[in-house]
Design goal:
By secondary structure, the chain is of the alpha+beta class. Helix content is 25%, strand content 37%. It is built from five helices and 20 strands. The protein has a nine-stranded antiparallel β-sheet. A nine-stranded antiparallel β-sheet has the order 15-14-13-12-17-18-19-20-16. Helix 4 runs antiparallel to helix 5.
Length: 304
């Protein structure tokens, strides 16, 4: 009898526990199905690979436009030129992910300077899609700014460090321009032509890797130094809007590699710098005269 009562008690306890467990499972399932998704602080969350263009405006003034065509990024305004890959990558990182520390539901954009934003960043996403990031007033609390995106109704507060890449100042065109004048890799250069007063003086690379001029073999170390000068030659600034005449050039240098040729002419700007006219484009870019003097000295040594 005692054993039967004990068995019944165990059965009842087990049954009650099963009912409780079933209730807990049901409650968990219900809350998972009906729970609201957690709020996100993402203002922008894009894949870098889907960004096809970037346009930055300060107030009503267009500052710079960059676009990707055929897989290659270029500056398209205010000049058309190759882009510096490192600075471009930093800008794409900034544009692909912007996070806020506060989200506000307020339709009065004028309170935050967003009716007439300080900066507007237009981000092209291909297939005629785009999104705009508006940067308004600085926050009275903390080092932050109020922002809004065109596809969301909210106003956000974002730390200034997340926005500094868009708030261009100084020589920003030079910042985003490709600095190296010649893009051909050192080991791919097969011919060099020095151009002076319309005449060309050529240096040719043989299949065995040696260099010759007019059949004369050139010193390997001297040529190696000259090639370094060429591939490391960089612009040091840009006078946007300046267009020096190619007719008054001091000298030119054409670099051949594979099926391509890069030709640049150099025109005196002042005692410290010379303008660069690259592949027929005169965009106000200039290079330090010291670098050109070193290149010419090494060229003279190489052909002696």
């Amino acid at each position: 009898m005692v054993q039967e009562e004990s068995a019944m008690k165990v059965f009842r306890n087990t049954f009650v526990l099963l009912i409780i467990l079933a209730g807990l499972l049901g409650y968990y399932y219900y809350t998972q199905k009906t729970a609201k998704p957690p709020e996100t602080n993402a203002v922008l969350s894009l894949k870098k690979s889907e960004i096809t263009s970037l346009d930055i405006r300060q107030g009503q003034q267009d500052l710079i436009s960059l676009a990707r065509t055929g897989g290659k990024w270029k500056i398209v305004k205010p000049i058309e030129y190759d882009v510096d890959s490192i600075n471009l990558n930093d800008l794409l990182n900034a544009a692909s992910s912007v996070k806020a520390d506060r989200k506000l539901s307020d339709s009065d954009l004028s309170k935050y300077g967003l009716d007439n934003p300080s900066y507007t960043v237009s981000i092209g996403l291909g297939d005629d899609r785009s999104v705009k990031l508006l940067i308004g007033n600085s926050s009275p609390v903390g080092n932050a700014y109020f922002v809004k995106v065109s596809n969301k109704p909210y106003v956000y507060r974002v730390e200034s460090t997340a926005l500094e890449k868009f708030m261009l100042s100084g020589d920003f065109v030079y910042q985003y321009a490709q600095k190296y004048i010649y893009q051909t890799a050192k080991d791919k250069i097969t011919k060099i032509a020095y151009i002076k007063s319309g005449d060309e003086y050529t240096l040719q690379k043989n299949k065995d890797g040696s260099w010759v001029r007019n059949g004369k073999k050139l010193n390997k170390d001297s040529m190696d130094k000259l090639l370094d000068d060429i591939v490391l030659l960089q612009i040091t600034g840009i006078d946007v809007g300046k267009s020096p005449s190619p007719n008054n050039y001091d000298f030119g240098l054409a670099v051949y590699g594979g099926n391509s040729v890069e030709k640049a002419f150099f025109v005196t700007k002042d005692k410290d710098n010379s303008y660069v006219i690259k592949d027929g484009k005169s965009l106000g870019m200039y290079v330090a005269s010291d670098s050109l003097t070193q290149l010419l000295n090494d060229l003279t040594k190489a052909i002696k």
